[in-house]
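Listing S7. Sequence submitted for prediction.
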Amino acid sequence: MAAAARAARHVRESVHPAPSAWTEKARHDFVTDVDRTAEALLAETLTTRVPGSRVVGEELTPAAARDADIVWIVDPLDGTTNFLHGYPQYAVSIGCLVGGELSVGVTHDVARDVVRWGAAGLGAWQGDRRLAVSTETEPRRALVGTGFPFKHLDGGGLEHYLRQLAAVVRATSGVRRAGSAALDLADVADGRFDAFWELTLAPWDVAAGVVLIREAGGVVTTLEGSAAVLSHGSIVAGNPSLHRWLIDLLRTT
């Protein structure tokens, strides 16, 4: 948590850069020096505190990480576009693989200075409050989070997603898209969202949230139902009842 706090402090104290300072890696996908510096701070803190560990991140992906027993999967600024526009929904996200298994997750909501963390067998927590997924079982009362497939707009991907979105909107009490998958997944673990889905995510977007949700009693899989969410891209999460319902709905849309 100290590493996340250090990176979050850097992001919080940074001035929102002017558009001239943005680097567009791909369409709708930006990076700034704030991201790069925050990731360097994370890597320095984590590898110093846990010698021999390696760091994989959106801007830093050393090949040596594949051979390490402890691997940190980090996103120094999940929700970069929100940050660039001053929209207060962005986070530092850290997941940890131990022996290939997701074991620890930390999500630091930078704008609100809220930390939620989880560890295998220890539960998920915010301070001394234990997190738990919602107990809602009726889709018509459910609030569902999502993310747009902004990196895959061609080849029918957007149209397919919009059909899914329409089906979920019709079946639930509401759908929200806030622009930070890390915070959306933490909100599933906290019972604020009853379920969540997105089609095109990277490991650093979801690693922390997967730990939080599972430790809070929820279920996280790919759209196909596999638990191997880090290697796939799609993700469906929720309490056990609504996770199953959402997967069934999405598969038939």
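Caption to Listing S7: primary sequence and predicted structure tokens for the chain studied. The two ends are 40 Å apart (CA to CA). The CA atoms of residues 223 and 247 lie 6 Å apart.
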